[in-house]
Write a structure and sequence with these properties.
single chain, about 250 residues, alpha/beta, Rossmann fold, 7 strands
Length: about 250
């Protein structure tokens, strides 16, 4: 396990769920942490729990100008980011493609794809110049296994998988690593956001089974970034024991 003392980690979507858990675990391992998200009050609450120095950046990853301005102006000693955890993302709605909201599709594409690209492209040159760094992208098993209503959400996560692998191809010869972590069912605010605050519907998603937790995923992220410098975990796919691969969707007549 490589120590993280003296390293700087930046976590997007750090105000709750997997992002918060990653920030806490990386801090426990010794890293300074930059917390980014849209809810400053929540970010500051997370920062108060950290064991190491932290810096809060209120930021909407969908805005290229915000991303470039904020991340290019990080103060010392947070300016040299060693670990980027691209966690900001969401799913919206579960309607079939022919009735789904185009606004929801735009939001998912802007956040899950373009936001991730903006943050990565802003921080990656510094990693390459310093010849060290690790980009961890939070994908999903939806990138591989389709399900009814997953349409654009699954497509955005397929983008994350392919972008991650192409980044790795571009970075061969450097000590900058890239990992795509693809969770299955994790009980966070994900379903609450997807169903627009309908707690009963969100809770039903996890009814009668034991889902993964945000801490489970943060533990995997920590494992990936603390491997020896010559070791790169390309893709980590993880599901709860209670989740599996569904049958083909067949309409019987």
């Amino acid at each position: 396990m490589e120590p993280l003392n003296g390293r700087t980690a930046l976590v997007t979507g750090a105000s709750a769920g997997i992002g918060e858990a990653c920030a806490l675990m990386l801090s426990q391992a010794g890293a300074r942490v930059v917390l980014t998200g849209r809810r400053r009050d929540r970010l500051e609450a997370v920062a108060a729990k950290l064991r190491t120095p932290s810096h809060v950046v209120e930021l909407d990853v969908r805005s290229r100008s915000e991303v470039e301005a904020a991340l290019s102006a990080l103060p010392a000693p947070f300016s040299e980011v060693d670990i980027l955890v691209n966690n900001a993302g969401l799913g919206l709605g579960l309607e079939p493609a022919h009735t789904a909201s185009l606004d929801d599709w735009d939001t998912m594409i802007d956040t899950n794809c373009k936001g991730l690209v903006y943050v990565t492209r802003t921080l990656l040159p510094g990693m390459v110049q310093r010849n060290r760094g690790h980009v961890v992208n939070l994908g999903s098993v939806a990138a591989i296994y389709p399900y009814p209503g997953g349409n654009v959400y699954g497509a955005t996560k397929a983008f994350v998988r392919q972008f991650s692998q192409n980044l790795k191809a571009d970075l061969v010869g450097t000590r900058v690593r890239v990992t795509d972590v693809e969770p299955g069912m994790v009980q966070t605010d994900f379903s609450l956001v997807r169903f627009r605050g309908d707690a009963a519907r969100a809770n039903k998603v996890y009814e009668g089974m034991e889902p993964l937790t945000a801490t489970d995923i943060a533990d995997i992220v920590l494992f990936c970034v603390t491997r020896p410098a010559h070791v790169n975990l390309n893709v980590v796919e993880v599901m709860p024991a209670d989740q599996g691969f569904g049958p083909f969707n067949v309409k019987r007549r």
